[in-house]
Specification:
There is one protein chain. Helix content is about 80%, strand content about 0%. The chain is an all-alpha fold. It has one domain: Ferritin (Up-down Bundle), CATH 1.20.1260.10.
Length: about 140
């Protein structure tokens, strides 16, 4: 697989994790204002996810989504972590940890695939900005 496909698949998987996790958390979150915020994040991840899938398909690459095992592990972990604390503060903290991991991985991948096509790097940079903005906005809910 070439660098363009690898970077697109990273974007695809990262945004898929965002879509899946936020979808689950919107059902758990109790505060209406916080749920609206989660919905906005969800829409942004979903748009990036669809653009990554489209770019993969247009370039003749297969999407390599998150494995079923990783999906199940994440689903269970979210349920366990919110079992006793469904507060916006706790969920915001969980999301900030995930977004910080996303920021680190995005920066690493932008450096690793610096020779990727500009349109793909731009989508990666958009995902990076989303992660950075998420961290800043989630601070309001701590």
């Amino acid at each position: 697989m070439n660098g363009n496909a690898e970077l697109l698949n990273f974007i695809y998987q990262n945004s898929q994790m965002g879509v899946n996790t936020l979808s689950q958390l919107m059902d758990i979150a109790e505060d209406e204002e916080f749920r609206k915020h989660l919905q906005q994040q969800y829409e942004e991840y979903k748009d990036i996810h669809e653009k990554a899938k489209q770019a993969l398909n247009e370039n003749g690459y297969d999407e390599k989504g998150i494995s079923a095992l990783d999906k199940i592990k994440t689903y269970i972990m979210v349920n366990i972590q919110t079992l006793t604390d469904k507060s916006s503060s706790h969920i915001a903290e969980m999301l900030m940890v995930g977004s910080n991991m996303g920021i680190i991985n995005a920066i690493k991948n932008l450096k690793k695939y610096s020779d990727a096509e500009q349109s793909i790097k731009s989508l990666m940079e958009r995902l990076l900005k989303l992660e950075e903005n998420n961290v800043q906005q989630l601070k309001n809910f701590l």
